[in-house]
Design goal:
By secondary structure, this protein is an alpha+beta fold. The protein has a domain of about 45 residues. Helix content is about 40%, strand content about 20%. The strands form 2 sheets. A two-stranded antiparallel sheet has the order 1-2. It is elongated and about 65 Å long. The protein starts with a helix and ends with a helix.
């Protein structure tokens, strides 16, 4: 484990630098184990990636919330006429 990873594990470092590289038709990077551990992530976890003018944020996906939202969208699509009638 390098010094940066040790500092991150101690909570002394909140960011690391990494190079972007081509991955198929996309661009990607690797995440050090220390970063994954601090974020409570592991290989195979579903993540939510968002971006704005300040940068990119990667966080663990809230699968329960995503499922509820998918069910809501399905319900809206399936019962659209009923909802419109009830809204009158």
């Amino acid at each position: 484990m390098d010094a940066m990873a040790r500092d991150m594990m101690k909570g002394q470092t909140e960011s690391v630098e990494s190079n972007l590289r081509k991955v198929g038709n996309s661009t990607g990077t690797t995440l050090p184990q220390a970063v994954l551990k601090k974020a409570n992530l592991k290989e195979g976890d579903r993540v939510k990636i968002s971006a704005d003018e300040k940068g990119i944020r990667i966080e663990k996906a809230d699968e329960r919330h995503d499922r509820v939202m998918r069910l809501h969208e399905y319900s809206k699509m399936r019962h659209d006429r009923l909802y419109k009638e009830l809204a009158k």
